[in-house]
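Much of what follows relies on a compact textual record of a protein's fold. Here is one such record, which you should read through line by line:
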Amino acid sequence: MNSAVKREGGLMENKKSDLGRKKAGRRKYGRNSDGTFGPGNPGKPKGARHKATRAAQTLLEGEAEALSRKAVELALDGDVTALRLCLERIVPPKKDDAVLFFLPPMASAADISDVAASILKAVATATITPSEGERIMRLVEFCRRALETSELEARIISLESGGQGIATS
């Protein structure tokens, strides 16, 4: 089936095929004009791998032992890159060390100010670093929220059961 051809200013345009390309572009890419994915198009599925990655994995499949052996041989022969590669696999990257200092018990949300003061004192005396103190305070904040939620739940239950035995802290 031939499409209509129109002549404008000496150039020939095929309007039907232009429309077909535009529709195909929307269908193929499913993106809005701003580049975001359009409705009904979540993007690539989780865990999807690029064609080149899949091809490389297929080629390397079953060769892991031989490649590892060769990397160790090269490292033992003095190849610095192979040595670094082997050491990165043998010795994992260092994780955070345990931080030891006194923290008062947290039985209620009211105890959090004592805990925060203890953390600030540990930072001020260089027992822990400021970044460690910040991370510990985030954990304390999660604990505060949990304690606060428990206390609110107890108060609601008490109010719903007739207001007897309201516990305040």
About this structure: The CA atoms of residues 94 and 140 lie 24 Å apart. Residues 1-28 have pLDDT under 50 and may be disordered. Residues 130-160 form the longest helix (31 residues).
